[in-house]
Amino acid sequence: MTSRQWQPPRLRLFEDTHRRATWLELLYDLVFVVAVAELAAVLAEGADLGRILTFVGLFVPVWWAWAGYVFYANRFDTDDVSHRLLALPQILAVATMAASVGDIEQRSGLFAIAYAVARILLIVGYARAGRHVPEARPLAVRYVAGFAVAAAIWLASLAVEPPLRYAFWAVAIVIDLATPLLARRYQDRLPPQSEHLPERFGLFVVIVLGEVVAAVVVGLKGHDVTPGTLAIALAGVAIAMGFWWLYFGHMDESVVLRTKLAGQVWVYSHLPLSLGLVAFGIGIEHAIAHPATTSWSVGVPAALVFAVLGVQHLCSLDRRAAAIRLGAAVLALVTSGLPTAAALPLILVYAAAQVAYDLLRSQPEGAA
User: What pTM did the predictor assign?
Assistant: First the structure.
């Protein structure tokens, strides 16, 4: 093989090239389409508190496994043989995680091993980056240390049985999530690449929006299509389109560089955003099955999505749009106490009104 096929990690941040997602990154995303669908199925089986906690508790490590690779690739992706040999086994590990979530009571050990393997492969990547990129060494050392401690706790959880095992997981995921935050002062020399990172997070938003459509299809497929159920389904898809418009109409690439705090808040906000979008889709599926019930299963997730979009506008210093998004979140939360037939049209109005406001504000002065 040529030396070009085997390359050490290099710092990609300051290269004068227009970066987009590679084919490997798109393949990596593909397995998360399956993982998100399996997670949605957990919530689709029931919306009791236990199911909700299970859904959230499993969604966080799955999302963080995706985000961990995204952050690494943003800085050090070479797409050579060595990089692929680290990335492709991560895909297999995430596929194993996805296969475990539907029966987590029996497969919690398999889930823990798969997640730990994905993180260990990422740790190897950062260790190589620290060795070959001197300016990245301080950050890489801290990432390796934090992620290694978390991975060790995931493996140590195999020594105990659920539910104590889940307490180990909670401690480990807190360490995992906190590691980049604790290394903030070492990130100044290695800021994320501002065109690549928003694109990658946008692609994950597309994945979870696709789950909304999938949930609507499953809901209609499993029940008689009546004018009422069809109206709920169409309203759900229309609201999801509104979420799409509000998110992608404001892709502020500069936010990841504005300040360390604003950039990290913007990044981490995608976790509750993704949770809210998937939960909204499952809420629509439940509403199709039980149209006479109150709409908290769609109103609360919609409120969460609006609120996160508001926070993202605050990160971009757009306080007026942030206030409108947060106001819509409050209205959606209040609306969740109404019957579904009344609540969904109102939530659609809240989304459509924000889209209309954004369009009017973007018009140049004097335009017709």
Answer: 0.92
